[in-house]
Amino acid sequence: AGGGAAGGDVASGACDPADVTLVGQVRNESNPYEASWLDGGDAFAEQVGLTQERLTYDGDSTRQQEQISQLLAGDTECLVMNILPNGDSDTPPIVEGAEAAGAYLVTQWNKPADLNVADYDSWLSHITYDGVESGRQIGDALAEAIGGSGGIVALQGILDTGAAKDRFAGLEESLAGNPDVELLDDQTANFSRAEALEVTKTLLTKHGDDIKGIWAANDDMALGALEALQQAGRDDVAVVGIDAVPDALTAIEEGTMTATVSSDGPWQGGIGLAIGYCVATGELAVEDIAADDRAWFAEQFLIQQDNVADFVSPETSEADFACDNLFSRSQGAIS
Amino acid sequence: MTTNLQTGPVPGGRTAPPALEVRGLVKHYPGVKALDGVDLVVHQNEVLGLAGENGAGKSTLLKALVGLVRPDAGEIWVRGERVRLRSVVDAANHGLGMVFQEQSLVPNLTAAENIVLGSEGPGVRRGIYHWRTMRRLAQEQLDKIGSHIDPLARTDSLSFADRQMVEIAKVLRIEERTSHPPVIILDEPTSVLESKEIETLFTQVRRLREFASVVFVSHRLDEVLDVCDRVAVLRGGRSVGEVPAAGAAPAELHRMMIGSTGSDDHYHDGLAERSEEPGRPRLVVRGLSGRTFRDVDLEVRAGEIVGIVGVHGSGREDLCRALFGAEATTAGEVQLDGERLDLSGTRAACAAGIGYVPAERKTEGMVGPMSVADNMTLTKQQARCSGPLVRPRKQATLVDTWIERLSIRTPHRGTAIQRLSGGNQQKVVLARWLVSGDVRLLLLDHPTRGLDIGARSEVYRLMRELAGSGVATVLLADSLEEAIGMSDRIVVMSDGRATTEIAAPSGGKPTPLDLVKEMV
Amino acid sequence: MSTPVLAQPASDAPVVARPTVGQRLTSFMPVIALVVLLAALTVVDPGFFTLSSLTAAVRTAAPLVVLAAGATVVVLCGGIDLSIAALCSLATVFFALWLPDLGGLTTLAIVAVAGAIGALQGVAHVLLRIPSFIVTLGGMSIFSAIALVISDAGPIPVSDRGTTHWLTLYVAGVLPMAFVVALVVVAVVSLVLRLTPVGSWVRAIGYSESAARLAGSPVDLVKVGAFTLSGACAGLAAVMLVSRNFSGSPTMADNLLLPAVAAIVVGGTAITGGHGSLWRSLAGALVVTLLRVGLPIVGVPSAYEQILYGAIIVAAVALTLDRSKVLIIK
Amino acid sequence: MTSPAEADTEVVQARRPQPRRGVSLRDAGPPIALVVVFGVFAALSPGFRTLSNVQNVLDAAAVLAVVTIGISFVLMMGSIDLSAPGIMGASAITVALLVANNRNDNDLGFVGIAVAVLLAAGLGCLSGLALVLLKVPSFMATLGVSAVGLGLATLLFAGVQPNIADPMLEGWAVERFLGLAHLTWIALGCVLLGWLVQRYSRLGRYAFAIGGAEEVLALSGVRVAPYKVAVFTLAGAFYGLAGVMVTSQLSAGLVQAGRGYDFSAITAAVVGGTLLTGGRGGILHSTVGVLLVTVLTNGLVQVGVSPYWQGGVQGLIVVAAVAAAVIPQRRRNQVTK
Ligand SMILES: Nc1ncnc2c1ncn2[C@@H]1O[C@H](COP(=O)(O)OP(=O)(O)OP(=O)(O)O)[C@@H](O)[C@H]1O
Ligand SMILES: Nc1ncnc2c1ncn2[C@@H]1O[C@H](COP(=O)(O)OP(=O)(O)OP(=O)(O)O)[C@@H](O)[C@H]1O
Ligand SMILES: O[C@@H]1[C@@H](O)[C@H](O)OC[C@H]1O
Ligand SMILES: [Mg+2]
Ligand SMILES: [Mg+2]
């Protein structure tokens, strides 16, 4: 039918490297993390002598679907897509569309737990960071920073995303292990710096000096919280976040922020294309990808003042994207 | 009696050039030739009346004189000099200003701002308001016409008459723009005024004549003859002649307007001729109270026309609206043909067989961009449907019948109603209640506002015909004469209460003075 | 009849006012805008004008067409419905939650319930006399909150795909069923408006609500009806989205609000009410969809894409709005 | 005639009482709603009624207030404006790149701020021009301009977050005077300025008049088009300043600096009693609306309403507040759009 002309005969490709089309799709180019992702994709494309088609959908789920169906209605024979689905629910239709059209697909971050990558031929891999783990790690770092006891508040991400939920679950684990740390309040600031600023100000007046620490589900919100603290004249509150965006690293260097967890945008932008490219050109066969590498957690690090220097300029080397080295950052299959 | 246009006597005996002269003005609209070579002369310090049927082209001519309508051909001369008027400002600079047929003030501004709007002069310096100066400028204008309103009152809080004064005060601002005496154009200024307000207005018009020329339009020909020095008549977009006001009779003017010898007495003819006696009580109102009326009792019999008279604020308009379900009531009961009437909304009122013609035609009576046909069948949809479906042919036949019966002048039934002249619009609005023939009670709020004599007598005839067929009518008349002439009985309202009832059978009519005594 | 004799002028004028060529042209403007846009995209990227690509585009457009169609009637009445997208999201959640119990009846139930919710807003609007902008803005946040809570802030997968499978089929192999359904909605509502008195009530209310009321038109009823239809369409669009995404999610359609309103306005319907039609919204929705998917696919970079999008929708409205029908443009 | 000045005082004094001049009862709804909502939260939450929280509410209202002042002029004309997100984004990035920052060597200080506000005014002007020249309804014109603004912002952003290092701009958010942040004083200044413009400038009064009866202005020989363009330009300038304020608060220029401000500003204005049909309300009305919305947002957090429900509860209260405010004005044949 109109949706898919090519049909699902993908197992491994025989595309001329020059015929491969590389597509990277993220929410927008107006936040540093996702912009760096697309830049990483460009770097990889250049490495193999191609260019990446950069797509953004402005955090709009329907628009993401629309773009992908339009993309899949074109020539899909040697199409490689590295996609950041807007939310868990956006992944299945993308996967089904790619499967029907026979386009090579790698997804990152969001996937419903019950959707199994191995059930598909074109969906090569799903990569994410372990949100529960990161939420717990920064939770523990926060607990330690406030001396193991005291009140904290949590800034949640967009409530209906897996990342937000997993990370908060991680915080709850951490709280269980730190019984003297009390969660005074949790609010959402939708992963946004501006909203975090307002919410934090209000929480600061609500709980006053009881607040010893702020747990934020990403660095953008942590940075907003830092501004609020500065404006309130408070320098005794520890702040943690996730993503390792440059500003957060600077803040950690300067000692105003306690910890973050690395998510490596440039690498994410390159690796998805690399996996697709290797399969499309026949250098890697889908059957040869280990079951554990179909859906995996990528390596992440807790970054604090002592090790921040190592992360200030994240580097992705060409070797990271070599067809025989694609899964080197795997921390194991998604449980 | 008809005098030559070019050589009319110049008041004062001097042979100065006329204040304003129009030669061969032509204006076409799609399907209509609104002006077809009009000639007109306005002398200095005279009040010139302009008469003509609805759609004769009066408003179009006047709009051309203030730069709002660009004529297709013809010339306009001001004080002996040929001018091209491109905008209101242009016209004002030549000393021409107009008070429009529909009131045109900005309701949410102060009276002072409205008066100086567009020509604030020293009232606004470098874009900054100087309220004291504004107030002074406005006060000067108000003083000229002897009005006592507060210049800083919001316009929408003023009475109708006061707003009309503001309009006149505003138009007089054009004096500041020219060193010459201005020409002030008044397009049907009296159609929305009560008789007392009209008197005030006429006093002002006579004062204006001292230093300005005035062009005055009204469908009340006695009024025209009363206040004007000379009357020019338009017919079908052409000048058909003029008469000096002194000694002329309305009938004579009317003959010129319609181009034939019509009946003489449009106000009164046929008034007495209704044969049937009014029937049983149809509308019975007991102790009805609302926002602006209290404890009103009223009875209207089938076939009876009851006029309600009262000044602005007497509550009669709201009473009518309440009977139609368009205004909330707080107490009382209403019965129609012995059954309790549901006052909860207009829909229920329509279903019960009540019809209502509001006074504000433009905003409440008609849906401007919709066609004549759709406006006419808006209420009685079933008249153009079979089952739930609209039958265009059925509608066309029905509408064309009524266009013909009421002599509605429109290029086509599909023409947007806003393109019709005011009088013809009014006929369409009236026709809305007649198309299905199932109306039992008609509430008419100024049904003849803005209608020419012919159309008016047509409406009168219709009302009588309807009464003859048993329809009960409540009439808020345009003038006391109309109320007296048309009604079988007159109820006087003042301060929200129905105070007096006066019988007005044919042959035993009260005089206007009798009513005025009761009204105040 | 003793009416005054008519003077000559009107008689030599043409009796029937036929629409001029210009007037006819303005009513086709939305389609012209669509064709021009398609041509432009094809010039930039010849690969864009293929059957499969067009098929994908109309399939994509279907939920937007349905959303815009419903809201068009509200706009024709002079109001606005800002809740459609949030209600649509909520309806996707309902769908996913109810499907296991209701099975094949779910679609009907969703359309009915969404219609009822729309009606509720209509009733609040007409009874409390709150501007529709505010009622539906409030509705928008309330529906979002409910959706978030009942879904436990996450997508709910739909495992039984049989119920919505028919929407993913193709008529004659090329015409997506979802789009056919959208066309049917547009056609049916248009016919009801044209063939019954409802059409003139709607226009009268939109042009002049008080005149309509004083002519005894069922103003409140028609408005509530318009909001009901708008809600029901949001429900139907939700079913389409679920059939496409295999899940319901509390924010799934949220971003369709502005595109839907844009579709209505780009079609040339007057945002002030009275003038316009569902066919115009259909063309408008296709224009908006082409812009949303077409610009990035033909390779316009993200930042320029937004700039172009802004410029083109403004230009499209400049083209499609019939100014002889809308005198004062606010 | 006597000296006009004398004459008019006399006449005016003599008949002041009846016609409506100033505020009337129908304007009292929103302030009453504000007091009620404030009272309820104060009763429910001890944290809410502290002085520092009141300061916090005022600080939090600053940006919304500036945006709402801008939009109020547009709403007064009966038009609508959805361009705030785009214009604020463009101005936020622009100012961040022009004052001392981590992306380039610019250090224009105040001039940088002025340029950002001018750029914003230019974008606003574009909306106005589309409205009067192309006759595109403001709803669409401003939606288009918002997209253009976001596009420009994204172009300038170029993938790397510009952080500001300008002490003055950073100080605006941090330093306080009489307990309020400088930004809050700036917002108060804007309220005063807006009110003066509305009351004493031709632009303000004409905007009000355009909402009241646009066609009458034309009949009076006023060319309304330039005033419309000027109002959109003025609104754009206010959005631009708001974008600068957000940048000061966050110490960084964000493309999303204006996200959501379009609808929240319209909500605030309407809650304050400005009608979307134009011709009513104004700056002071809108300011009350801003306070009401901000108190709500703050209060719901203070009393501990679940984040899941906050939006819904806020929507409900806004509808209820507007409903309560319109009750005294309800008429049978009233038109509500
Ligand atoms: N804007 C317009 N478009 C089309 N036709 C118009 C327009 N304005 C006026 N006409 C037509 O021109 C003719 C003259 O109208 P005009 O308003 O000048 O009449 P009038 O003498 O003022 O009538 P009335 O006494 O009812 O006010 C009418 O047939 C009217 O339908
Ligand atoms: N003496 C004065 N000095 C300054 N301004 C004045 C003065 N008199 C009147 N005004 C202006 O006239 C206005 C009165 O009309 P306005 O429409 O603004 O009243 P309002 O009560 O604000 O109406 P709304 O209820 O529509 O808000 C005042 O708000 C003010 O702008
Ligand atoms: O900050 C990121 C956020 O924008 C995205 O939604 O999820 C992953 C986060 O790290
Ligand atoms: Mg006229
Ligand atoms: Mg005011």
From TrEMBL, chain B:
Superkingdom to which the source organism belongs: Bacteria
Pfam families to which the protein is assigned, alphabetical: ABC_tran
CDD domains in the record: ABC_Carb_Monos_I (cd03216), ABC_Carb_Monos_II (cd03215)
GO MF: ATP binding; ATP hydrolysis activity
Keyword check for ATP-binding: yes
InterPro entries to which the protein is assigned, alphabetical: AAA+_ATPase, ABC_carbohydrate_import_ATPase, ABC_transporter-like_ATP-bd, ABC_transporter-like_CS, P-loop_NTPase
Matching SMART domains: AAA
Keyword line: ATP-binding, Nucleotide-binding, Repeat, Transport
ABC transporter domain location: 20-261, 273-520
Keyword Transport: yes
Record's protein name: Ribose transport system ATP-binding protein
Organism expressing this protein natively: Promicromonospora thailandica
From TrEMBL, chain C:
Membrane topology of the entry: Multi-pass membrane protein
Location relative to the cell: Cell membrane
Major subcellular site: membrane
Residue intervals passing through the bilayer: 28-51, 63-96, 102-120, 132-150, 170-193, 221-244, 256-274, 281-300, 306-322
Record-level GO cellular component terms: plasma membrane
A Pfam family recorded for this sequence: BPD_transp_2
Record keywords: Cell membrane, Membrane, Transmembrane, Transmembrane helix
Domain of life assignment: Bacteria
Gene Ontology MF terms in the entry: transmembrane transporter activity
Protein name: Ribose transport system permease protein
Record lineage: Bacteria, Bacillati, Actinomycetota, Actinomycetes, Micrococcales
TrEMBL record, chain D:
The keyword Lipid biosynthesis appears for this protein: no
Mode of membrane association: Multi-pass membrane protein
Parts of the chain that traverse the membrane: 28-45, 57-76, 82-101, 108-133, 139-157, 177-197, 229-248, 260-276, 283-301, 307-327
Domain of life: Bacteria
Pfam family, any one: BPD_transp_2
Record key words, sorted: Cell membrane, Membrane, Transmembrane, Transmembrane helix
Name used for this protein in its record: Ribose transport system permease protein
A cellular component annotation (GO) from this entry: plasma membrane
A GO MF term: transmembrane transporter activity
Species: Promicromonospora thailandica
Localization annotation: Cell membrane
Region annotation (Disordered) ranges: 1-24
Predominant place of localization: membrane
InterPro entries: ABC_transp_permease (IPR001851)
PANTHER family per the UniProt record, alphabetical: ABC TRANSPORTER PERMEASE PROTEIN YPHD-RELATED-RELATED, RIBOSE IMPORT PERMEASE PROTEIN RBSC
